[in-house]
Structure formats: C-alpha cells, structure tokens
Amino acid sequence: MTEQQRKAPYDLPDVSGLSIGILGGTGDQGKGLARRFALAGHRVTIGSRKAERAQAAADDLTGGQDGGLPVSGAENPAAAGGSDVVIVAVPWEGHKATLESLRAELAGKIVVDCVNPLGFEKGKGAFALPVEEGSAAEQAAAVLPGSRVIAAFHHVSAKLLLDPDVDGMELDVLVLGDDREATDLVQALAGRIPGMRGVYGGRLHNAHQIEALTANLISINRRYKAHAGLRVTDV
C-alpha cells in the first residue's frame, strides 16, 4: 500500500506545536512514546510520583544517541498540568488512584489512555482482566468527567519505540473516543511518528476489545519471537 493510499480519509489538524505529558513515563511504554514524540519535535514531560525518578528517565533519553531531545521530568501533577495532551501509561494496578489524584490538573485536557488491564498465568500466558467500567479507558472517563478521554497506542511495541536502530514504526494505531475533534487530534499525533498512522476505531465503549487484543499480540510475539503490530487494510 502506498503512502497516498494510507492517508487518513479526511484532513487532520496540525498538532506539531503541542506539548505532551506522559504519566508513567518511567516505564518502557511511556518512555518509548516520550522518545518518539520528542524525536518528532514535541516538548515532552515525563511524569512520575517522584520528580527525581522522572528526571532520571528523561536523562536516559537525552543522553547518548538521542542527545538534545526536548524531554524533561517532573512529578505527575506538574507533568499533567503543564502539557497540552496527557498520555496515561501507568501500570493497571495504579490506574484509578493515579487519575483520581490528578483530576484537577487534567480538567479540560485531552487524556489519551493506553493502559491494558492484563493478567498473566503460568502455562496460559496473558489474558484480559475484567474492568467494572468496561475498560481502562472507560474507567478513566468515569474518574475524569471534566477531561476528553481517548483510547489509543495500545498495540505499540515498547522495545521498538526505544530501539535507536528502528527509524519507523510501521503500524496503525486504533483511536477510540466520543469526541470527534479529540480523536482527530490523537490520530494526527500518531501520524507524527514516522511510519505510524492513526485510524478511528469507534466510540469509547468499544475500548475493551482493543485493550484485550493486546493479550493476543503478546501470544503472537512469544510464538514468533516478533514485535507484531496492526495494519488496517483498504483505508
């Protein structure tokens, strides 16, 4: 499929000037997204419960081959309050409590939830956990009624995001939400990472199966020793 064929079916907004905060940015997924967005020219703030831990993660990204990237570290409230868009990449176990503690800082913002509620059992592998609200993204929306919650970036390999030898992320990012302007913006953000494309995937109440599909991808990756992603055809 050519790049022309893979363009979104409508114009997306210019998001090049937006700053991005990443809650849970000290983990591999959050740190990898921070790296890719910083490489794309966005100012990125990694958030953590402890400012020194967040800054250490930022220092890891701004040293060596990635020197000079616009990445800094801060406590979660500062990372959330000082960014235009906030990505939630915290462990599932602390998801609800973290968002409850940041309700004021996240009010009015686009909040992108990429958390996958998964369990692991020896001999059975990864499996989706039940969530009272339906999904992690719906839990975020319930906890943050003043925010514009979007689900996205669930199926992106942290290893590839962090790999300096990988120039492009050849995959599609499914973007779900109830706010058309916000889903368009997040689709455009996904497209800032070379090779990546944001594709609208439905309303937020469809987020459960997107989160759960991550368990299948983990099984694929283990069987084939790969870092599989998704491609949507004929769009």
TrEMBL record:
Record-level Gene Ontology MF annotations: coenzyme F420 binding; cupric reductase (NADH) activity; ferric-chelate reductase (NADPH) activity; NADP binding; oxidoreductase activity, acting on NAD(P)H
Keyword Oxidoreductase: yes
Keyword terms, alphabetized: Oxidoreductase
Region (Disordered) location: 51-78
Cellular component, GO, one term: plasma membrane
Domain annotation Pyrroline-5-carboxylate reductase catalytic N-terminal: ranges: 20-117
Keyword S-adenosyl-L-methionine tagged: no
Pfam families, A to Z: F420_oxidored
One Gene Ontology term from the biological process aspect of the record: NADPH regeneration
Listed name of the protein: NADPH-dependent F420 reductase
Native species: Actinomadura soli
